[in-house]
Design a protein that fits this description.
This protein is an alpha/beta fold and 292 residues long. Helix content is 42%, strand content 12%. The protein contains 9 helices and 7 strands; from the N terminus they run βαβαβαβαβαβααβαα. It has a 7-stranded parallel beta sheet, sandwiched between helices. Helix 2 links the parallel strand 2 and strand 3.
Length: 292
């Protein structure tokens, strides 16, 4: 099927840029109506101070064959989140098939290679508000729409597929929490035939990472001169295709509660990155990072 998600309704929370934008666009390409949420609009910026906006993402969704609907939402503000799902309920007659929690915004708050007692506590707690509490509130208001219809898929976007330390206590806590949120939600939602799972990309080649390495998508391999591991990176559309494959899988409930990765789903579903390659960060990490 050219558009396997035609007639489906999705909310991608945190779709302004990066993985969230690519997920929204790829769901649109598959035919879905996608509510694109985030804090940065053409008339208001977020603390991230990035140029991308939710309106741009929604327009990309529509241009690829779906229907993009931009809704300015601060997912740390309960009133905003409640209003979002009230809008979805009203406009879609209560239908919500896919909810993707890709809320983060913690890069400016995270200091690497700094022990937790020296790290700003205020910033560490803010990371939890932005990347954990926001996910909890979004699922709290989104899940009832799925429970009412006895179907749906909730995806927690995270970093890493294990509970291992990720180099910063506050960062680790947020990313591991996303995995456990999926596991715990899956248990509560199982009697209602709603699936929840966690999904991680590999080394993500987002807009911000391209800028950090001083490259573009056309010459991105030159970034390996700054970090050799960048050669194994993947575009945000790789995880977008992973989400679309999961959403179109009639047997996705068998994966409920698990922490999955782009590379293992590429092996299973056969999708590629936008350049036709199939990056496998898990294998690369085992062979080139762990052995160092």
């Amino acid at each position: 099927m050219k558009q396997p998600l035609k007639g489906k309704v999705a909310v991608v929370a945190g779709a302004t840029r990066g993985a969230g934008r690519a997920i929204a666009v790829t769901l649109g390409e598959a035919g879905a109506t996608v509510y694109v949420t985030g804090r940065t609009t053409r008339s208001s910026t977020s603390p991230m101070q990035r140029p991308e906006t939710i309106e741009e993402t929604a327009e990309l969704v529509t241009s690829r064959g779906g229907r993009g609907i931009a809704v300015r939402t601060d997912h740390t503000v309960e009133e905003d989140v409640k209003a979002l799902f009230e809008q979805v309920t009203k406009e879609q007659n209560g239908q919500l098939d896919i909810l993707v929690n890709d809320l983060w915004g913690g890069d400016p708050l995270t200091v690497w290679e700094q022990p937790f007692w020296e790290h700003s506590l205020a910033n560490g707690l803010q990371i939890q508000r932005q990347a954990v509490h926001s996910h909890m509130m979004t699922s709290y208001y989104g899940a009832p729409l799925m429970v009412a219809r006895k179907q749906g898929l909730i995806i927690e976007i995270t970093d890493g597929d294990s509970y291992s330390y990720r180099g910063n206590l506050y960062y680790s806590l947020a990313k591991i929490s996303a995995i456990h949120l999926a596991e715990a939600m899956a248990a509560d939602l199982k009697p209602h035939r709603v699936t929840a799972l966690a999904l991680t990309p590999g080394f993500l080649r987002s807009e911000a990472m391209l800028e950090l390495f001083g490259v573009t998508e056309d010459n991105w391999r030159e970034g390996a001169g700054k970090d050799p591991h960048f050669i194994a990176s993947e575009t945000p559309y790789y995880i977008g295709r992973a989400v679309a494959a999961l959403a179109a899988d009639p047997d996705v409930s068998a994966k409920s509660g698990r922490a999955l990765s782009t590379w293992e789903l590429s092996d299973e579903y056969g999708f590629t990155d936008i350049d036709g390659t199939r990056p496998h960060w898990g294998r690369y990490y085992a062979e080139h990072v762990l052995k160092q």
